[in-house]
Amino acid sequence: MQRSFNTLTLALIPVAIAINIAIGQIIVLLKLPVYLDSIGTVLVGLLAGPIAGLITGGLTNIIWGVSGLNPQYTPFFYVAAVIGLMAGIFARLGWARTIWMWALGGLITGVVAAIISAPTSAIVFGGVTGAGTDLIVAALRASGAGIMQATFGQGIVSDPLDKLATFVIVWLIVRALPLRLRVRFPNAEYLPK
Amino acid sequence: MIAVRDFTYTYPAAPRPALIDINLEIAPGQFVGVVGANGAGKSTLCYALSGFIPDFYRGDVKGSLSVAGRDLCKTPVAELAGEVGLVFANPFNQITGARFTVREELAFGLENLGRPRDEMVARVDEALRLTGLTELADRSPYALSGGQQQRVAIASVIVLRPKVLVLDEPTSQLDPVGAREVFETLDALTGEGATVILAEHKLEWIAAHADRVIALRGGRVAADGTPREVLADASAEELGLMPTRYTLAARLAATQGVVKRDGPLPVTLDEAREFFGGRQREGA
Amino acid sequence: MTNAFSLYTPRASALHRLHPLTMLALVVFCLVAGLALPGPWGPYVVFLLLILPLAALGQVLPNLLSTAVKIALPFAISVFLIQGLFWTGGTPVVELGPLSLKREGLWFAAQSTGRVLTVVSSFLLLSLTTRPDALMIALDQRGAPKTLTYIVLATIQIAPRFQAKARTILDAQRARGLETEGSVGRRVAALLPLVVPLVLGSIIDIEERAMALDARAFSRSGPKTSLLTLRDTSAQRAGRWLLLLGMIAVVALGIWLRRAA
């Protein structure tokens, strides 16, 4: 990654990770059934491409965890990385030009996130997060679902909604960015008009 | 030292140029104040003189701009650290965040240039001394006041010993105490013989310290001369410049006939003393 | 270090004097051992016999214990209740009215709790005893990209400032009557005035942040040097190799124990 990014992208990544963390923690305080802890990741994917998005997502969870503040997030670093990667790929496919395709990209990303996070959730964390969404896991287990299915069931209820909201918020933000700044990002030609 | 020839620049996606037909020669060691209303092109001129145009901002360039014979428009900005340095208004954004102490923050540029450690230590110590930061060297840059952070920004640039130091309104986001700290630091630096370009709204300070003032309007050079020539001129107000209190007092005194004197109005305290009769009481 | 997003706690301990890479190897060993050894006892052995004594040596035992428990407790409660009560076809051990706790569920919950405890406390041990800037510089002296060092260190210094900013905006929105009732969609939409200005303002700021980096030759290619020097010893280098071998051994042991069971 030495010179594959311009300085603007490099300066963006730490700010994006800080946005993930700051907003993610505010949402926890508000007790909403979404996480919104990948706004920065999706933003980088959209502005700077899949690899930059991947790095932003992965490092968010690693830094959040290794700093000692939220160690339970670190094992999911690959999920966050895939979210950034997918946002970047959807952007390159031109899906960000209209909000409908971009929102669809958010839903698909949410489904993928639910699928790939389930194994780690089940194996490392016994299928629970210690948060309110555990009620869904409880209900599914009570109705006879296996640990992996129950965990995935929890994810498939919360993740697509969360990623949909995240993608839409990011789209609105990017559209509000000054043109002078937008034209200088690697993905300039794929951004919403 | 600096030569600007027929320089015209348009930002990407902008309808009209931000700078138009600029021609300037700036001698080594000169302290140049750049003045003008908001939107006159002060910041753009600063970015151009420090190599950020067009490498960083992209956009469309005509003409040439060189420092010590090196064409800034054809050199990547990262290769120019050590040749030209830029300090701008927001102190928080200028702290790289990549280092945990003031001392290490100052060394960041030298590390990127691959300077040997011994040289780094000596140059960092010197920059700390020049900016009065020696006492704060082991603090976190984020734990400092705005004025102190701005001095860190200045120190991080002068530690690279640029031939030209460009400052774009370095005091505009500081309180009066912070602004005074920054001006005192600049005073110490100009004493060292550096070539300094300072875009600034605080004209009294420019009047007292600059060798030369360039006034911009609508992207063009509207006036260029000594502070007294530019700032005391009747046309200064048309350029959106607020005359200094000395000029205002002298103009009032002249129109009311209190003082009868020909020649230019004063822009500094010393010139005002001379204008009002040159009598100076000791200890006053 | 109070200004950075880090739990680093300065102490005059042997652990704090270690080269950051030695500390990293030690923590990764704890993590690998905790996850490789079969449950439910494996992770607890690592936690009790390795992580806690190391934390004591680093004079950060109270910090580590209180933070680890605070994070692991909600998990533990959740996992014991859910997997204990709703384990499909398990052997009931305690009857609770219409429900019952199942032995297999409790067994599974104990294992999960152990793993969470090991993961959390390993990271806490690293974070409490190792300066993040020293760790990153050690990594980049070993050939990790400079850009990675920049991203990590800038993040941990910027993040606390963003949290403070986000909290200020949240308080302001609350004072103006942020929607806390109503449907989920409505409440999420009510967040937009909180989220959009925060993000937009910080993205506009990155232009200046990038300029400051370029003015300090950040994107220049070629060799770079470092002001901060780190003390390493041949004993520590040997120790790191031993820990690496130990990781392989403990993974093998874990596989063998699972086969034997």
Give descriptors for this structure:
B: alpha/beta; Rossmann fold; six-stranded mixed sheet; 33% helix; globular; C: mainly alpha; 2 domains; two-stranded antiparallel ribbon; 9 helices; 73% helix
Structural class of chain B: alpha/beta
Let me know the average pLDDT of chain A.
89
N-end to C-end Cα span of chain B: 41 Å
Number of domains of chain A: 1
Compact summary:
The complex is a heterotrimer of chains A (193), B (284) and C (261). Chain B has 284 residues and is α/β, with parallel strands linked by helices.
Report on this structure.
The complex is a heterotrimer of chains A (193), B (284) and C (261). In chain A, 60% of the residues are buried. Chain A is globular, with a radius of gyration of 17 Å. The model of chain A has no long low-confidence stretch (mean pLDDT 89). Chain A has helices at residues 7-30, 39-48, 50-66, 77-92, 99-125, 134-142, 147-176, 179-182. Chain A contains eight helices and no strands. Chain B is of the alpha/beta class and 284 residues long. Chain B has a single domain (2-225), classed as Rossmann fold, CATH 3.40.50.300. Chain B has ten helices and ten strands. Chain B has a six-stranded mixed β-sheet, with helices on both faces. Chain B starts with a strand and ends in a 9-residue tail after the last helix. Chain C has 261 residues and is mostly helical. Chain C folds into two domains: 14-138 and 233-260, no CATH class; 145-215, no CATH class. Helix content of chain C is 73%, strand content 3%. Chain C has nine helices and two strands. Chain C has helices at 14-17, 20-36, 41-57, 61-86, 103-129, 132-141, 146-175, 184-215, 234-260, and strands at residues 92-96, 99-102. A two-stranded antiparallel ribbon of chain C has the order 1-2. Chain C is flat, with a radius of gyration of 24 Å. The termini of chain C are far apart. The relative contact order of chain C is 0.14. The model of chain C has no long low-confidence stretch (mean pLDDT 88). Classes of the chains: A mainly alpha (193), B alpha/beta (284), C mainly alpha (261).
